[in-house]
Each structure stands twice: as structure tokens, then as C-alpha cells.
Amino acid sequence: MRLPDPSAAHPALFDPLGAEFTRNPYPTYARLRALNAPYYFAPFDIWLFSRFADVQAAALNPLSLRSLDHRLSAEGIEADRRAQNWHDMPYHARFVQFSMLNSDGAGHQRLRRLVFGEFTPSQVERLKAGVEAYVSELFDAVGSEFDFINDLAVYVPGRVIGRFLGVPDTDCAQLRVWSEDIVQYFDIDRTDARKALAERTTKTFYDYLIDLSHERRKRPQDDLISRLLRRWDAGELSEDEYISTCMLILMAGHGSTIDAMGNGLTALLSHPDQLQRLRSDPTLMPTAIQEMFRYDAPLPFFHRLAAEDMQVNGWEIPKGTKIGLLYASANRDPEVFADADRFDIGRTPNRHLAFAAGPHFCLGNHLSRMNMEATFATLLSRFQSIALSAEPQFKPSLSLRGPKALPLRVG
């Protein structure tokens, strides 16, 4: 099947920075799925795939890539950078645009293999007791009214991924800010101010990691930075690959887990029957966390590029076409999930796409779920009553989904 005529796409159907979409994107996703075809979003020059079958097929297609640079001439690469408006961002280009996340094929597999063993369930399990103790300390410091996001959730993944990598505890809060300042330029709202912030922060982050690396060379520790430095010194990693991998792990370990915590608590509090069900049966916590990711995914969108003419679930995709994978929409597809708009903490099977699919399946999924399980188990054991003291306000974004704050009253 050929893609629809781009000029026929109704521009009002998809407004990812609009108030309605920011508050609740799922009616929009349902309208996109009802088209039974990809939707052309002109401001981003991208075809959006919203149905589960289409999104999964695109994510698994070996010709569906994150970058086409290895297939372009030098002139083509420069033209592409200008089109995406990061041609004059030298630090961002070196360490953010060319990371494991934005590589494919053998290069991606090589970088992924170097860190894969760090994220296995057995390795993550070693951190569990420390995470639970730290979460308990955070809850000790809150009163009967607090902001779940800014007083608690923002500290959990940063501290955990910081220790995992080898960052001093005192620096974790600053690293979260840097991560957010860099990641914000991946979204569609690319103003000059946001661009300058991303480039400036990437350089600051680079300088910090170089200084920390000098310290680790003098005094190696049992942490990922020390192990990656040995890989660098052995010639298995270049300097740029070493820095970009450290940055990616820190950035990926922060924002999405914070947003997942906020989305998950919002879902629980808006479904009191499921909250009570989880209280009554704590063994449901693992499936509840998976349902939180399905029901309101923290990373609802990623892009791919067609390396060659290809087919995606029957759709003919010309070479060079930019494809948008709407993971959050796919996770509410009624063709795959029974009563898809219902939040069900016991849902099984639950083969959602919140962690993506294929070669780019999220390495940190075990770590993220462990953080959430520790946080929600402690929250429910500490407080018999939990209520929002104000309606959650979500961040306007296509690439991210999460509340800015969640003020709570507990008792």
C-alpha cells in the first residue's frame, strides 16, 4: 500500500504542543489509529505510525534506522545537520547525536555489548537493598504534604544511576539538571534559546566527565566509569564513544524514570479501585509497574529513518522517509490490549512497547522498574491515605510524557 497523499492530512488532527494534547493525548492517538493509515505531520516532515502492528513492524525492520549518516556523502551529512539545526553544535554533535542511541548495525551492537552485562537482572538485583534504604530515607524527610515529583521522585533514579556509573552522590542533583537541559532539544520545540542551552550544557557535562575520568584513572573503583575507562585505554572505545556512552546512561537513567513514577502515581490515584487492589495484594507490584508503563508511557515517541525502500506492515516506505513511532498510542491499541483504556494492575500478558522493540530495546528497563517498585512499595506501606492536593499539570511535549509536579496530602 502506498502512503496517503501528504496534502490530505488534516493539520488540526495532531497538535502535540496544544493544551488538549498536553492534558490528555490519548483521544488524539485514538483518532490517529482510526485513520487506519500513517499520518503525515508536516511541521516535522514525518509519517506517524500509531497502530501497534505498524509501530512494532517499523521498530523491528532492519532497514528502519536511527541515522543514515553512514550512507550519506559528506555534503549530505552537512545538509542533514543543517536541516535538523544542529550543524553548529560541535559538542552536541560529538556526544549526543552520535551515541549508542543514535547508531545502528554493527556499531550499535558493539557499543551495546560493552555495557549490556551491567544491566542484567542479576546485576540490578545487587543494587536493590541500597535503593530501598535510600527511598526509605527520602520518605523519612517528607511531611504530611509534599510534592511527589520534586521532593522525592527526582532524587531516586539520579542517585541510583549515579552510583551505578560512579558519580559522587553530591553531584547527582546537578547531573539531573544537565540531563534535562540536553534532552529538551530532542523535542519539536527547537527555539534558539533551547538550542544554545543544549550545546552549552553538553560542553559543561563533557568537562565534568573528563575531570572525573582523570580522578578515576588515579583511583579506580568498582563502578562503570572505571570499567569503561579500561575499555577506552584498551582501544575498545574511542574518547567520543566513552563520553557519549556515559552521558547517555546518565541522561536515560534520569528523566524517563521520574516521568514514569509521576505517570504511574497519577494513574493509581485516579483509579482508587486499583490502588486498593495493590494495597490488598502487594505481590501485584511487578505487573502494576508494567501496567504503569503501558498505560501512560514516559517516552511516547521516537523516530526512525528508512535506509532503503522498504515495507512496514504492508505500507510502502520510500528511502529517506522519516518515521515517527508513537509507542504510547500503540500501547492503547484495542486490537492488541483488551479494554485498552482501562488501567489494570493485574494485566497479563502485557507486551507493551514502552521500552521500545528490536535492537534499541531499553537496556535500563530492569533498573527503572526496580526503582519504581521500591518507591511505590514504600509509599503504600508508609501512608494509609494518599490524595492529590492539586490537579497534575503535564509538560507540553511530543517526546516526553510526565507531570511537572504532584502535590500530595498523606496520612
UniProtKB/TrEMBL annotation:
What InterPro entries would the database entry show? Answer: Cyt_P450 (IPR001128), Cyt_P450_B (IPR002397), Cyt_P450_sf (IPR036396)
Q: Which domain of life is it from?
A: Bacteria
Q: Which Gene3D superfamilies does the UniProt entry name for this protein? A: Cytochrome P450
- Pfam families with a match to the protein in the record: p450
Entry's transmembrane regions: none
PANTHER family the record matches: CYTOCHROME P450 YJIB-RELATED, P450, PUTATIVE (EUROFUNG)-RELATED
Tell me the protein family, please.
Belongs to the cytochrome P450 family.
Can you name this protein?
Answer: Cytochrome P450
Q: Which organism is it from?
A: Asticcacaulis currens
